[in-house]
Design brief:
The chain has about 170 residues and is mostly beta strands. It is about 10% helix and about 45% strand.
Length: about 170
């Protein structure tokens, strides 16, 4: 079975570069990206909107903001990892539940990047954990724009455990 292609903004070599950068971040070779920053935070149920954000890059050039509302259970510990390429032109933001599947019922979610434009974005109902693999959301459940990965009202099935974004500095900053 082929791996999910994710959602890409643009095409051609930009999409290929985004996929290669995503693989480089996953493997974490020192020559490809700066050391990622990982920050833990609580995802809180209760049905009200909450946000968590963190910045990375020189002068905190890039920011990733996770906004959500969820129901059920108790707080879950999640993590946000941010990394930049050595030239600081690419930025990655991964938001996930380290224990794999979330047991919360998400009524909405949005991951937004500031200071960059998304080249690749993907959302998952289950994050890889032990012998389990990432399980992507169906394409109709979420949308990717230049700055956000967000649920689609009426189509999102309320399961979320991981978001992955690869973004690039706007052309004017190259």
């Amino acid at each position: 079975m082929a791996a999910p292609s994710g959602r890409r903004i643009g095409g051609g070599s930009a999409s290929l570069w985004a996929a290669l950068l995503l693989a480089a971040v996953a493997l974490r070779p020192a020559e490809a990206v700066s050391e990622p920053i990982t920050v833990a935070f609580d995802v809180r149920p209760g049905g009200v909107e909450h946000s968590f954000s963190h910045s990375a890059g020189p002068g905190d050039k890039y920011t990733c903001v996770f906004t959500y509302a969820s129901q059920g259970g108790t707080n879950e510990q999640w993590q946000m990892s941010l990394g930049t390429s050595e030239d600081h032109q690419h930025f990655t933001c991964t938001i996930w539940r380290p224990q794999g599947k979330s047991y919360l019922y998400f009524t909405q979610f949005k991951a937004e990047v500031q200071g960059a434009e998304i080249e690749y974005g993907m959302a998952y109902s289950q994050a890889a954990f032990e012998r389990e693999s990432d399980v992507p959301l169906k394409n109709e459940e979420f949308e990717v724009t230049k700055t956000t990965v967000a649920h689609r009202p009426g189509a999102f099935k309320a399961e979320l455990s991981k978001l992955v974004i690869v973004a690039k500095a706007p052309r004017g900053e190259l």
